[in-house]
Amino acid sequence: MGVALLGSIESGFIFAIMALGVYLTFRILDFPDLTVDGSFATGGAIGATMITAGFAPFLSTVSALLIGLVVGAMTGILHTKGKINALLSGILSMIALYSINLRIMGKANVPLLGEDTLFTQIQDALSALGDYGLLLALAIIALVIKFINDWFLHTEVGLAIRATGNNQRMIRSFSTNTDNTIIIGLSISNGLVALSGALYAQYQGFADVSMGIGMIIIGLASVIIGEAIFGDRSIVRATFAVIGGAIIYRMVVALAMQVGLDPSDMKLMTALIVIAALIAPRISASYKERKRKAVRTKNREQQMVHERGEVKKHA
Amino acid sequence: MLKLNDIYVVFNEGTVDEKVALNHVNLHLNPGDFVTIIGSNGAGKSTLMNIISGVLKPDYGTVEIDGVKVNNLPEYKRAPMIGRVFQDPMAGTAPAMTIEENLALAYARDKRRTLGRGVTAKRRDEFRTYLETLHLGLENRLSAKVGLLSGGERQALSLLMATFTKPKVLLLDEHTAALDPARAQRITELTEEIVGRQKLTTLMVTHNMQQALDLGNRLIMMDKGMIILDVPEEEKKNLTIERLLAEFQRLRGEKFASDRAVLA
After folding, report:
1. Domains identified in chain B and CATH numbers
2. What is the number of structural domains in chain A?
3. Which Pfam family name is an example for this entry (chain B) (predicted)?
4. Integer CA distances (angstroms), B264 to A202, A270, B206, B208, B245, in order
5. Buried (b) or exposed (e) across A261-283, using 16+ Cβ within 10 A?
6. In chain B, pLDDT over 70 holds for what percent of residues?
7. Are the C-beta atoms of A65 and A222 separated by less than 8 Å?
8. In a domain, A218, yes or no
């Protein structure tokens, strides 16, 4: 396996955790949550800063997850208790987090050069597997999170959260406080995003204050690409699709880099991928519809010519 | 079972659009009462429903359910006591979720939602038995998404879900109005059956006068935020649409006006 391919699958699994978070808000809660751009960097900032301060990588990573939970809940509280529009509450959190992230890191970039990270530890422990140790570990982490997600969404609380995104009025009449379900959903989502950020900082060897920019679109791209290719008939299937989508997204990015695009072109490319993924199904559907009607018109015309012939014969 | 004391609701107070939706309304329902409500447009029927369920709070007056004053409880806290079916067949169920998941949502209405599985094998059997009473074959489609069902099927499921945990009060808000006559008839029969079997205290708003006469043991007519006619069981038996309309004219000095009222 080429280094570039291996790398894109590895980072794909890390981004998949973030994409699962985006799936929770975007698809399950029907809440376009832009906090993601901030909370991804917050996760990276917490992880990297704690590691350089001498904390154990595992503890640092878990801390990032916990802070992510808090950050997501804040967005939820802004929306439900403060009655602020969903998009705006996410943007407010995102912009506030930019300053907070800089405060956490103390500077714009925290390098992890020479530090022990979760991944150097994993590579040491799984050195027998050579290059594939890290890949295996990341796959297991992503899949475990997927299975926990699947389980959670089928519990009574999980069902109530899904119903909140599906029909709020109905689930309120079944004694669910939708404020709480929205806050819980956003909290878990941003917990996953921050966890993904902490892992990615350790993977690339540094945390950067701008590492979260455009994350929401990458998450969306993963969800949309995944659902289009692998299907979304059930939760179990859809979460699997999201992981697949994230990996495919990273592969496309790696491919584009090899073709000669610049890393700074990636945001434009991501936007184009999402636009194409959103528009393509509609164009293809309307094309099929036109074709179907054209066939019908043609058949009907032939039928009418035939009938007229019949009438003449009888006359 | 249900007591409304001196309920007053005003919208847009102090503006040119000021409208008194409920004008000091008193209503007492005994356990097992099945009351039908008719009234012209803007009579306050829907506001009444929203006041009981907690969607709206009255500007004055108290709401009591089973002896408990619920004025300060938000909708979701009253919900364990109240079952509700809306007019829109799409409103009472979650379309992207399966039939069994929807029933699991209804099942947990009067309990604390836990991290236990929503749909267990034991519950699935219970759901199946319960669905069989609808005679729609839904018991064989437990894992079908509710969005795939027809309007009539969805409304039947909504009714089943609303009554699943035997609420203290059942609110039916024109729940057959959006269906075609045959399906509306079927849902009406189901309503009678379920309310009768569970002896539910029920309040039903309808635009169909015949339905209002046929169902229940008491009939209320509303107009301009007031209850203008309250017909008890004995009198209701002899009531006809003509006499109801004549009564309205006598009380209000004008003709019954509703663009949606079904007179026959």
Report:
1. 2-93+169-262 (3.40.50.300)
2. 1
3. ABC_tran
4. 74, 61, 13, 7, 12
5. eeeeebeeebeebbeebeeeeee
6. 97
7. no
8. no
Strands B218-223 and B226-231: antiparallel
Integer Cα distance of A12 and A24 in angstroms: 18
Pairing label, strands B82-85, B68-69: unpaired
For the ranges A94-98, A288-292, B187-191, the one whose mean pLDDT is highest? A94-98
Strands A206-208 and B2-11: unpaired
Touching check for B91 and chain A: CB below 8 Å? Answer: yes
User: Which of B82, B91, B101 lies at the smallest CB-CB distance from A170?
Assistant: B91
Using CB atoms, which residue from B53, B106, B118 is nearest to A155?
B118
One-letter amino acid at A263 equals P
Whether B75 and A173 lie within 8 Å, measured CB to CB = yes
Complex ipTM: 0.89
B116 at interface of A, judged by CB pairs closer than 8 A: yes
Of A152, A162, A172, the CB nearest to B75: A172
The per-residue pLDDT for range A255-291, each reduced to its tens digit, is: 888 888 888 888 888 888 888 878 887 888 889 889 9
Lowest-confidence segment of A3-7, A170-174, A220-224 by average pLDDT: A3-7
Closest C-alpha among A163, A179, A222 to residue A29: A163
Residue whose C-alpha is closest to residue A141's, from A69, A210, A61: A61
Residues of B in contact with A163 (CB under 8 A): 94, 97, 105
Torsion of CA A244, A247, A252, A255, to 10 degrees: -140
Q: Name the nearest CA neighbour of B38 among B220, B203, B161.
A: B220
Q: A179-188, B8-17, B121-130, B252-261: lowest mean pLDDT where?
A: B252-261
| Closest residue by Cα to residue A233 from B212, B208, B97, B238 | B97
* Chain B residues within 8 A of A154 when measuring between CB atoms: 117-119
Can you tell me the mean pLDDT for B30-59?
A: 91
Helix axes A132-152, A118-125, angle to 10 degrees: 110
- Identity of the amino acid at A43: G
Is A34 domain-assigned?
A: yes
Residue B59 CA to residue B110 CA, distance in Å, equals: 28
* A175, A184, A234, best to mutate vs chain B, most B CBs in 10 Å: A175
Domain that holds residue A96: 3-212
Q: Phi and psi for B18 in degrees, rounded to 5?
A: -55, 135
Q: Which residue has the tokens 């029933």?
A: B103
Among B148, B146, B214, B164, smallest CA distance to B184 is for: B214
* Environment class of A134 (CB within 10 Å of its CB; exposed 0-12, middle 13-18, buried 19+): buried
